[in-house]
Amino acid sequence: MLGYNRTCLQPTTFLLLGIPGLESAHIWISIPFCLVYLQSLLGNVALLLIVKRDHKLHEPMYLFLSMLSVADLMLTSSTLPKILSIFWFNDREIYFEACLTQMYLIHSLSTMESGFILAMAFDRYVAICHPLRHSTLLTPAVIVGLGLLIVFRGAVLLSPHPFLLRWLSYCKTNVISHTYCEFMALIKLVCTETKIRRAYSLIVAFLTGGLDFILIICSYVLILLTVFSLPSKAARLKTLSTCVSHVWVILVFYTPAFFSFLTHRFGHHIAPHIHIFIANIYLLIPPMMNPIIYGVKTKRIREGFFKFLKIKCA
Q1: Would you put residue 90 in left (φ > 0), alpha (ψ -120 to 50) or beta?
Q2: Which of 66, 122, 244, 271 is the most buried (most CB within 10 A)?
Q3: Stated pTM of the model
C-alpha cells in the first residue's frame, strides 16, 4: 500500500477520510464548520482582550475563563484548518508524525479544558460556601499555580500517548475513517496486541475528565446545600444566578465529550458518520459557546464585546 514503510509496517502518511458516508456533502458541511471556527476565533480573542483591559474582571472566575479560552483557541486551530482542507480541497494526507502531534494536542488540550472548568467550579464553591475566605484562598499566586498545575497535568499524563503508538505496526491500513487523528481511531489500525495501551488511555481518561466531572458534581452538591440553607428566596436565586453561566459551560463541554468517549469504546452499533459528526461537534461547539454564554450572562463582558465590535449598546 502507498505511504508505507515496508520494513517496520509504519505508514509515512495517513489518509483522513473526513466523515464516511457523507463525502458528497463535505462542501456543504464545511460552511457551518468554517463559520463556527471563525466565531470561535473571534469570540475567544475578544474575550481575552476584554478581560485583559477591564481590571474589574481580574477575578478568579474570569482568569480561569481566559485560560479556558486559550486552550479552546489552540484546540480548534490544531484541528479545524486540516478538517477544512479535507472538505474543500480533498487534502486527505497527513504525515505520521503530524498525526501523532495532532492526537497529542487534542487529548492534552481537552484535558486542560476539563481542568480549567473544574477550577471554575472550585471558585464558585469557595465564593458561595466560604465567601469570607475567597480573596485569601484564591490569591493571584494560587490562581497562577492552579493554572500551571492543570497545564502540567494535561501535558505530562498525555505525553505517553504518541510513544504508545509510535513504534506499532499498522499492517491493516493507513486510512483513518475520521476528520482528525485521535487515539482510538489510530489504535484500531494496529495489528498487534493493544490491551495495555487501551487500558492506559482509559485510566488517564478517568483520572482527568472523569475525576474532574465527579469533583464538579461534588462541588455543586455542596453549593446547593449552602444555597438552600439561605433564609430568603431572593438570596437563593441571586446566589444561584452566579453559577448559571458555568453550569451551561459544563453541559456544553461534557455532554458531547462523554458521548464521543463512550461511543468510541462501546457504541459499535452507532453509525460511523453519526459518531464522527458528534466528535467534531465536541471540538467545535464548546470553544464557540463559552464566550457567548459568558457574554450573554455577564454585563461587563457583554459591554466589552460591543466595544470590541465598535457597536454602541442602545
Answers
A1: left
A2: 66
A3: 0.90
